[in-house]
Design goal:
One of its GO terms (biological process) is L-methionine salvage from methylthioadenosine. Helices cover about 40% and strands about 25% of the residues. The protein is α/β, with parallel strands linked by helices and about 270 residues long. The longest helix has 26 residues, at about 145-170. Bound molecules: adenine. Adenine (ADE) binds near residues 188, 207, 208 and 235.
Length: about 270
């Protein structure tokens, strides 16, 4: 057995004694190089479950299960359920891009959720708009410790690389926001659509398609979760083009920068 494979085995054995962190994104670009980094550090055991590949190993010193949820609330809920039941994750982090909704939220900024809500859930008049029927809740809070750790990783990224990143990608210097992220099974891509969301939910900072579903399932199972989103577009008529170029050119670099800092700090703590 080579020294490298002995190292991998030791890292995999060490990771098995500690409950792993689940890390997921919708699309491969949103995960950056996380799976490659895991492969290099510990080796990867890949388990296929419900048509998804779950990658088990250690990355930046932290035992993790990394997977792609694909797009939308059902896909996200199914994936996080598997992370909880089949992999016994200790907590969950979702990373990816989102459309900016808050007036101060620009392309290239980062939003860490304090709370998440499904903006397309409406069983009124039987239940209040946005409320999950029979659960009696519309807003799911992110785990305060995990969200603070993610926000700290984002702040360190901005302090250390924000100016260089802005110059490289032609964006403004990133800013980190914390607040409400809203999720629905729609790509919001019109001035009228984003205006309607602002009117209905004035404190919403960003819109995406998975986070609140993850937060609901994690709430129901008592699993801490947090969501971090980089702003790829402002959910208006320019959103499709802005989303595609941000996703292909920038999203991976942001994810790498944020997740590396988050995981290194977590392993040290
Ligand atoms: N993810 C990134 N941009 C989005 C948008 N405009 N609507 C929904 N999800 C998104």
């Amino acid at each position: 057995m080579s020294a490298a494979s002995q190292g991998h085995d030791a890292a995999l054995a060490a990771s098995s004694s500690k409950r792993p962190l689940g890390i997921l994104a919708a699309l491969p670009q949103e995960l950056g190089d996380l799976i490659e980094a895991m492969r290099a550090e510990s080796g990867v055991r890949t388990v296929t479950h419900g048509r998804r590949d779950y990658h088990v190993g250690t990355v930046h010193g932290a035992p993790c299960v990394v997977t792609l949820a694909r797009v939308g609330k059902v896909a996200a809920a199914a994936t996080v359920s598997a992370l909880i039941h089949a992999f016994d994750v200790e907590s969950v982090v979702f990373t990816g891009v989102a459309g900016g909704v808050g007036a101060e939220v620009r392309v290239g900024d980062i939003v860490v959720a304090n709370a998440l809500l499904q903006h397309d859930l409406d069983a009124s008049p039987l239940f209040p708009r946005f409320e999950v029927p029979l659960l009696g809740m519309s807003r799911f809070t992110a785990d305060a410790t995990l969200a603070a750790q993610l926000a700290a990783a984002c702040e360190r990224f901005v302090a250390e690389e924000g100016a260089a990143s802005a110059a490289r990608f032609g964006t403004m210097r990133p800013r980190v926001h914390r607040g409400l992220i809203i999720s629905g099974d729609q790509f919001v891509a019109s001035a009228a659509g984003v205006k309607a969301l602002r009117e209905a939910l004035p404190d919403a900072l960003a819109v995406e398609m998975e986070g609140a579903a993850i937060a609901q399932v994690c709430h129901e199972y008592g699993v801490p979760c947090a969501v971090v989103r980089t702003i790829s577009d402002t959910a208006d008529d320019h959103a499709p083009a802005s989303f595609v170029s941000f996703l292909t050119e920038i999203a991976g670099a942001y994810s790498n920068a944020i997740l590396t800092r988050f995981l290194v700090a977590r392993s040290a703590g």
